[in-house]
Amino acid sequence: MKSFAANTCYSFKFARSFILVLCLISICLAKENSQVQVLGKFPEILEEASGIAISNVDPNRLYHINDSGDTASFYISDRTLQNIKKIHIDAIQNWDFEDISTGKCLNNKDCLVIGDIGDNPQYREYIEIHIIEEQIQFAEKTPVLKSIKVKYPDRAHNAEALALHPSGDLFIITKEESSSIFKRKFTEAEIFKISKNDWESFNEKTQKFITPKLIGKINLPEINANEDQWGRIVTSMDIAKDGKSFLVLNYVNALHIQVDLSQIDYLKSEDLVENKNFQILKLKRQKMMEAICFDHKPNIILYSSEKRKSKIGELHSMSIKN
């Protein structure tokens, strides 16, 4: 009888301890995601949303693009993914649109930059970047202000991340992975710079390509070594409005890196030290997170996932520490 009572008491204490641990975990997770808000869900027309940017002419406007398979176009919505309008881009093709950015360029115009930079098989001779001037009211079809052809200095790269710096420089971060019969291999993402002078002076009639400059690497496989393989490839980026930091998204989390890309000669992976010059942002994870940007407030970010593959396709806002 004594043994039964002792066992019952032990079982009760164990159950109580187990419940306490679960409660603590729940509290931690709630605290971790307390600053995350769902702003809206993507409709079918934007089921492969692969880039997001904030308008500089209308604070309530967001820009989106679909992944490859769509026409040469972009989409406008409000901040809750309502009132969506599709804008066709005249005289270009969508080989593989992957990211979108906004900022000042070409004599202080409000520019929308679309990166046709995807190349899964890594065979493209060159990639393209298209610049469109923002309008208060877009017609159903809009012209391109400028298109540039970019050829990497070494080989073809696949990339899903592009951003316009306040200085006017353009940056691309590559998606470095290779596959074999046995496994997928992930290596350091490479950062390429296209200077403002180079791309703004590009003349398609007299120049074939622009060659970007390799200015650094980010070792996501090492930074996210404790995460699954989806944390090891870059899927989007954005640069803060003051240019002093940038975001790097992957399928698990995001990095907020306090480095001004226009002010460095070369960024080595080992130069990045967690909680010193970069932080890992723990997002509300969904499959296929492929779009991220800073909001107009520097401590707010927006990020989203593709609807077709995630089956959810939500737009989130999140507070971060500067």
Structure commentary:
- A hairpin with a 3-residue loop joins β6 (99-105) and β7.
- The protein is built from four helices and 23 strands.
- The model is unreliable at 1-15 and 17-34 (pLDDT under 50).
- The chain has 322 residues and is mainly beta.
- The longest helix is centred in the N-terminal third of the chain and has 31 residues, at 2-32.
- Strands 2-3-4-5-9 form a five-stranded mixed sheet, with no helix packed on it. A four-stranded antiparallel sheet has the order 1-23-22-21, with no helix packed on it. A four-stranded antiparallel sheet has the order 6-7-8-10.
User: What are the secondary-structure elements, in order, as H or E?
Assistant: HEEEEEEEEEEEEEEEHEHEEEEEEHE
How would you name the CATH homologous superfamily of the largest domain? TolB, C-terminal domain
Q: What is the SS-derived class?
A: mainly beta
- Counting DSSP H or I runs of 4 or more residues, the number of helices is 4
Residue ranges: pLDDT <50 for 5 or more in a row? Answer: 1-15, 17-34
- Indicate the overall shape: globular
Distance between the termini: 62 Å
Helical amount among residues, as a percent range? 10-25%
Q: Order of strands across the widest beta sheet?
A: 2-3-4-5-9
Question: How big a fraction of the residues is strand?
Answer: 35-45%
CATH architecture of the largest domain: 6 Propeller
CATH level-3 fold name of the largest domain: Neuraminidase
SS elements, strand count: 23
Most strands sheet: 5 strands, mixed
For the record, the count of structural domains works out to 2
Level-1 CATH class name of the largest domain: Mainly Beta
- Average pLDDT, to the nearest integer? 89
